[in-house]
Design a protein that fits this description.
alpha/beta; 8-stranded parallel β-sheet; metal-binding; metal ion binding; Metal_Hydrolase
Length: about 260
């Protein structure tokens, strides 16, 4: 019934026996998970997991270079990502974007990689999964400048910005995805965003293994916890839970059009 549109199951050192974990995820009612890469190696593992572990839940994957992992970037990596994404299970270019959180950030390199991967998504006719941390102004500017490359759409993953910023992304045709932080007690700004996103543009995720929702905050997150995100969104929006879950599933299939 539920879809987790953004998780990182490609962490063997954190998750161990993945088939056993997948059984628990399926038992929680989560029938589809998008497994997201952050560099070519993690993207290749996500692709391999999606092909090998094709039972319940259904696994799909995204391939991309996270802005904080560009120290490993090599010439030819975009071609390697493109090759992975030829798979029927490869649904998006991601996780890409900007992250200025750390002091030694090479902002220029991040911008170049972001723009290059937007071009890759356009060439492959695939949507993008966008990460933005402490870089809202530059993220929005680059997306506006590259609006023509967003013809296949995209999502602001694990959104943490203001209602005003969300509205700007919505004007670009992007989706807004909510993760565990929307359940946190101090998430007043996210509460407001959750109420204004149109029903046809809302998505939900865990960003596992990070950001476990209440009441599991501080523990290792897994896609089974996406149920708590759905429950909080339904409460904030005054919607029936199963109807919201069905809407989000349809939204995900519309954006990530390879999902069956």
């Amino acid at each position: 019934m539920y879809i987790d549109t953004h998780a990182h199951l490609n962490y063997p050192e954190k998750y161990g026996d993945l088939p056993q974990l997948l059984a628990k995820i399926a038992a929680a009612g989560v029938d589809t998970v998008i497994n997201v890469g952050w560099d070519p190696a993690s993207s290749a593992l996500a692709a391999e997991q999606a092909e090998r572990l094709a039972a319940a839940p259904a696994l799909y994957f995204a391939a991309g270079f996270h802005p904080s992992n560009l120290q490993d970037y090599q010439t030819g990596d975009e071609e390697r990502l493109a090759s992975l994404l030829q798979s029927p299970k490869g649904v998006a270019v991601g996780e890409i974007g900007l992250d200025y959180h750390y002091e030694d950030t090479d902002e220029a390199a991040q911008k170049r990689a972001f723009c290059a991967q937007l071009e890759l998504a356009e060439a492959l006719s695939l949507p993008v999964i966008i990460h933005s941390r402490d870089a809202a102004a530059d993220t929005l500017r680059i997306l506006k400048d590259n609006r023509a490359k967003l013809r296949a759409g995209g999502v602001m993953h694990c959104f943490s910005g203001s209602p005003e910023t969300a509205k700007e992304y919505l004007k670009l045709g992007l989706y807004i995805s909510f993760a565990g932080p929307v359940t946190f007690k101090n998430a007043r700004r996210l509460d407001e965003v959750a109420k204004i996103v149109p029903p046809e543009r809302i998505l939900a995720e865990t960003d596992s293994p990070y950001l476990a929702p209440e009441p599991f905050r501080g523990t290792l997150n897994t896609p089974k916890n996406v149920v708590q995100v759905y429950e909080k969104l339904a409460q904030l929006r005054g919607e029936e839970l199963f109807a919201l879950a069905a809407r989000i599933k349809q939204n995900a299939k519309t954006l990530f059009y390879k999902i069956r």
